[in-house]
Design brief:
This protein is an alpha/beta fold. The chain is built from 15 helices and 13 strands.
Length: 373
């Protein structure tokens, strides 16, 4: 029996790996442990541990790693400490991490320094800001790579990773997006008490490399939303440096009938809302990755997603109020082209399972080698 740890610190990375956890958790030849930390345990961000517990995974473990949004380095250290102690008890064969978060880096460090195989989901991608530095660092610390497309695979080869360590499976959340498990819109609206007939979605995150300007950016953004006439479902940002400025500005939306503000939404419920939205505005990767698959118009603000692979005709604007307001004036007439489907065909879970059950994966050398081009 292979022991596998899945590490999750945010609602975003859990949405990406949920189906991967589920497919292994029910198999007798794997002992799956879900280690939960980060935003999941913070009440102000919705305490999304509850969403994970609803999945009824056999083994769910938690530890607190929160310090303060300005001390990402200390959060990294605390995550390493907590995960290291847990791995010594479990002695896993594999640690699976996703993306570009501090928790992701901690998981890769703990695994690589303790002679444990590390699998990185969705490495080899571009985004900008400090996230990209973390993602590429995780890739170099990982032994196995589950990538979303061939472009990401080529970048990993360019970084010296061996071809035998790379498995192209697509983006796992696409599986859920087009599955039959999504609730219908009426159920979602009743659950969250959303009374709007039509609405748009707001997801605006801090940019850590622009933290000194985030107060101004958040103020401008919320002022534009208040000046606009659309109804909005607003979802809290992640807890990166600068998030406090955004949350402070969201207080201006309180008691305004055009806004429903939530710390977090259940992933499948969020997808249903996104699928039926008029548009999405902000700087979330959901506007770059998920929204195009539903042909939802997108207003992308600022630099956070500037290097992401783009599948749609996105309206990109800077942080100035005039630019945002102008985009909001034309968005109802903006038509999205059908997404090119560059992040898989909805079979990522099966491709992941095929790889995990293949002896080739488990034979990968713990001592990594740099591959010369």
């Amino acid at each position: 029996m292979k022991k596998i740890i899945f590490l999750t610190g945010t609602r975003a990375d859990f949405g990406k790996i949920k189906s991967l956890i589920s497919v292994l958790d029910v198999r007798p030849d794997f002992e799956v442990h879900v280690v939960v930390t980060g935003m999941h345990l913070q009440i102000e961000y919705g305490y999304t541990l509850l969403e994970i517990q609803r999945c009824d995974f056999k083994n769910i473990h938690t530890f607190e790693n929160h310090t303060h949004e300005t001390t990402m380095d200390l959060t990294l250290a605390k995550t390493i400490e907590g995960l290291s102690g847990f791995t010594k008890k479990i002695n896993p064969d594999l640690i699976v991490v996703h993306g570009d978060r501090v928790e992701t880096l901690a998981g890769a460090i703990v695994g690589s320094l303790n002679n444990i195989l590390v699998a990185h989901v969705e490495g080899g991608e571009l985004s900008g800001t400090v996230d990209e530095l973390i993602r590429h660092s995780v890739s170099k610390l990982s032994h196995i790579h589950f990538v979303s497309n061939e472009d990401a695979a080529k970048r990993l080869l360019q970084m010296g990773e061996t071809e035998s360590s790379i498995f192209t499976i697509g983006s796992p959340d696409i599986d859920i997006m087009f599955s039959d498990i999504l609730p219908n819109l009426t159920v979602v609206k009743e659950y969250y008490q959303i009374e709007f007939e039509k609405y748009a979605i707001v997801m605006f995150h801090p940019v850590t490399t622009e933290s000194s300007e985030m107060k101004e950016y958040a103020t401008n953004f919320v002022s534009c939303l208040l000046e606009d006439t659309h109804n909005y479902v607003v979802i809290y940002p992640n807890n990166d440096l600068g998030s406090g400025f955004i949350l402070e500005q969201y207080k201006r939306l309180k008691n305004n009938s055009r806004f429903r503000v939530f710390p977090s939404l259940r992933f499948e419920y969020f997808l249903t809302l996104l699928k039926n939205a008029q548009f999405i505005i902000g700087n979330s990767s959901a506007g770059i990755r998920e929204a195009p698959y539903y042909n939802i118009p997108i207003i992308n603000i600022g630099t956070r997603q500037q290097n992401r692979a783009v599948l749609a005709d996105i309206i990109n604007v800077n942080y100035e109020q005039a630019a945002i307001i102008n985009a909001l004036k034309i968005i109802d007439c903006h038509k999205e082209n059908e997404a090119l489907g560059n992040f898989g065909k909805g079979n990522s879970t099966q491709l992941f399972l095929d790889a995990i059950e293949n002896d080739r994966l488990w034979a990968i050398n713990h001592q990594k080698q740099f591959r010369e081009l």
